Amino acid sequence: SSLTLATRQLESQLGMLLATFHDDAGFWPAFTTLMQGLETELTQAERSRLRSHADFLLVRAGMSSWTLIGATPGTTARAVAAAAR
């Protein structure tokens, strides 16, 4: 399914982002781009599940949760701006 593929890509690419970016200014924009790309073919329910999984992975990696659940593209941009502060 599309959700399974997106989840696997999230897990592998998030690891690369965490290894590549060592500051919020670089990480969050790259993470936003990743999430937007992964969500393009998903239904709203699948997007919510992917965002929830992303939150879980971020917390597990020792980062604060990005609170993606329920975020819309407009709120995503605002969340990134707030996280970068």
Helices and strands, with pairings:
Blueprint: H1 2-20, H2 24-39, H3 44-60, H4 73-84
Helix pairs in contact: 1-2, 1-3, 2-4
What would your notes on this structure say?
- This protein is an all-alpha fold.
- The chain is built from four helices and no strands.
Helix content: over 70%
Rg result: 12 Å
Low-confidence stretches: none
What is the structural class?
A: mainly alpha
- Total number of helices: 4
Provide mean pLDDT, rounded.
81
Shape from CA axes? globular
DSSP strand content = under 5%
The N- to C-terminal Cα distance equals 36 Å
The profile of the biggest β sheet is: none
Number of strands: 0
Taken in chain order, the helices and strands follow as HHHH
